[in-house]
C-alpha cells in the first residue's frame, strides 16, 4: 500500500477515483448514477482537489481511499472553514490509513471544519471521534407523503391564534432577526447562524426566492407581530431530484407549544404541491430530531466538528452507528 499527498497540483486520475468512491457509497441518493449527479459531485470535489491537500491510499492497482481538504476563507456561512471530503472503498480496511492521515492533517486544519461524513464509513467516524471531532448535526432524508401521513391530523395554525402569510420584502429584516437571535442564544444548533456573513447570504437567497410567485416562504404572525418564519425551498437537486429543504424558526414565546407539527404539515403539503419527492435537512435540535423520527426521516450524513456539544445519545435514534 502506498500513501502519499498531492500538493498543490491536482491529479485528474485521483480526482476521478475520488468521485467514483463517493458515488459508489451514495446508495441513499437516487440520482447518484446519473451524469448530472456525477458532474455535481465532481464539481464539489474538484474545488477541494484543485487548491487543497489530497491524501491518498493506493494499492498499486487503484485508489482505495482519499482525504482531501482545503481552506475556504469566505464560505456561505460567513466564517472561514476547512472543507474536508473523506471517502474510501468499502472493501478497504481504512483503520490504519485514516489514523495516520488524521494525525498528520487535522493539526493543519485551523478553521472550523465543514465535514459531511457518509455514515457508512464507520471506521472514519470512530477515528474522528477519538480525535475530538464529534457530530454537530445529522443530515436527514425523508419522503413528504410518508411524513404527512405519520404526523396525522393535528389541526391548523389559525385555531391556535396564528396568521400565516407569504414572506414579503418588508418582512425580511424581522425574519432575519429571528434567525440571528435564535442562534446567538443557541449556537450549538448552528454555530454560524448569527454570523453577519451568513445572514447576508440568507438575505440574498430569500430576496431571490420571494421574487418567484410560487415560493414557499411563510411568516407567522400573532396579533400583528412577526413571531415565526417557516420555509420549504424546493430545488431540483442533482443527486436527489426535486427536494424540499424545510426550516422553522420561532420566537421564544411560541416555542414549546407543539406548533412544529402543524407547521411541518403545512410546509409538507405545499412542498408536495410544488413537486418535492424528498425532504432533506440538517439538524441537532431535539424537537426536529423527535419529529424527524415520527416522520420516518433517515440519517444520510453526519456534519462533524471539533468540540461538538452533544454526545451520541442526543442523536438517538440516528446514532450510534450500528
Ligand atoms: C426548532 C423549533 C421550531 C421547534 O419548535 P418547538 O416549539 O420548540 O417544539 P414543539 O413544542 O413544536 O415540539 C415538537 C416535538 O418535539 C418534542 N420536543 C420539543 N423539545 C424537545 C426536547 N428538548 N427534547 C425532546 N423532545 C422535544 C415535543 O414534545 C414535540 O413532540 P410531540 O409532538 O411528539 O409531543 C423551535 O424550538 C425553534 O424555533 N428553535 C430555534 C430555531 C431552530 O433551532 N430551528 C431548527 C433548526 S434545524
Please name the CATH architecture of the largest domain.
Answer: 3-Layer(aba) Sandwich
* Proportion in β-strands: 25-35%
Helix/strand-derived category reads alpha+beta
CATH topology of the largest domain: Aminopeptidase
Strand order of the largest sheet: 1-2-3-4-5-12-6-11-10-9-8-7
Q: What's the gyration radius in Å?
A: 21 Å
Which range best describes the helical content: under 10%, 10-25%, 25-40%, 40-55%, 55-70% or over 70%? 25-40%
Strand tally: 12
CATH superfamily of the largest domain: Gcn5-related N-acetyltransferase (GNAT)
Instruction: Tally the helices.
Output: 9
Task: Give the overall average pLDDT.
Answer: 95
Ligand catalogue:
coenzyme A
CATH class of the largest domain: Alpha Beta
- Termini separation comes to 28 Å
Major sheet size, sense and barrel closure: 12 strands, mixed
Low-confidence sequence ranges: none
Question: What is the count of distinct domains?
Answer: 2
Judging from the principal axes of the Cα atoms, what is the shape? elongated
H/E series: EHHEEEHEHEHEHHEEEHEHE
Entry keywords:
9 helices, 2 domains, 12 strands, binds coenzyme A, 322 residues, 34% helix, alpha+beta, Aminopeptidase, 12-stranded mixed beta sheet, single chain
3D structure, described in words:
The two termini are 28 Å apart. The mean pLDDT is 95. The longest helix has 17 residues. The chain is built from nine helices and twelve strands. The protein folds into two domains: 130 residues, Gcn5-related N-acetyltransferase (GNAT) (Aminopeptidase), CATH 3.40.630; 173 residues, 3-Layer(aba) Sandwich (Aminopeptidase). A twelve-stranded mixed sheet has the order 1-2-3-4-5-12-6-11-10-9-8-7, sandwiched between helices. The chain has 322 residues and is an alpha+beta fold. Bound molecules: coenzyme A. Coenzyme A (COA) binds next to β10, α8 and α9.
Amino acid at each position: 500500500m502506498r500513501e502519499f499527498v498531492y500538493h498543490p497540483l491536482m491529479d485528474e486520475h485521483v480526482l476521478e477515483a475520488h468521485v467514483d468512491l463517493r458515488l459508489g457509497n451514495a446508495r441513499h441518493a437516487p440520482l447518484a448514477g446519473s451524469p448530472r449527479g456525477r458532474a455535481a459531485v465532481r464539481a464539489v470535489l474538484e474545488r477541494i482537489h484543485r487548491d487543497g491537500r489530497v491524501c491518498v491510499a493506493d494499492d498499486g492497482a487503484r485508489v482505495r481511499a482519499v482525504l482531501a481538504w482545503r481552506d475556504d476563507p469566505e464560505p456561505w456561512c460567513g466564517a472561514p472553514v476547512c472543507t474536508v471530503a473523506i471517502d474510501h472503498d468499502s472493501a478497504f480496511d481504512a483503520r490504519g490509513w485514516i489514523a495516520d492521515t488524521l494525525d498528520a492533517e487535522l493539526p493543519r486544519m485551523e478553521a472550523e471544519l465543514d465535514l459531511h461524513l457518509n455514515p457508512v464509513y464507520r471506521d472514519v467516524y470512530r477515528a474522528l471521534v477519538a480525535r475530538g471531532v464529534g457530530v454537530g448535526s445529522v443530515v436527514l432524508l425523508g419522503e413528504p407523503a410518508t411524513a404527512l401521513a405519520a404526523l396525522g391530523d393535528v389541526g391548523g395554525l389559525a385555531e391556535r391564534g396564528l396568521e400565516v402569510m407569504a414572506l414579503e420584502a418588508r418582512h425580511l429584516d424581522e425574519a432575519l432577526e429571528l434567525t440571528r437571535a435564535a442562534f446567538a442564544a443557541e449556537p450549538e444548533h448552528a454555530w454560524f447562524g448569527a454570523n453577519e456573513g451568513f445572514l447576508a447570504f440568507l438575505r440574498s437567497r430569500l430576496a431571490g426566492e420571494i421574487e418567484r410567485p410560487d415560493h414557499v416562504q411563510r411568516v407567522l404572525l400573532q396579533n400583528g407581530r412577526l413571531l415565526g418564519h417557516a420555509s420549504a425551498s424546493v430545488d431540483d437537486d442533482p443527486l436527489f431530484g426535486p427536494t424540499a429543504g424545510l426550516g422553522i424558526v420561532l420566537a421564544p414565546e411560541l416555542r414549546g407549544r407543539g406548533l412544529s407539527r402543524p407547521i411541518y404539515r403545512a410546509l409538507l403539503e405545499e412542498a408536495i404541491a410544488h413537486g418535492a419527492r424528498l425532504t432533506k435537512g440538517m439538524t441537532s435540535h431535539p424537537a426536529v430530531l423527535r419529529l424527524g423520527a415520527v416522520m420516518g426521516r433517515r440519517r444520510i450524513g453526519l456534519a462533524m466538528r471539533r468540540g461538538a456539544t452533544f454526545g451520541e445519545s442526543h442523536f438517538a435514534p440516528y446514532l450510534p452507528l450500528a
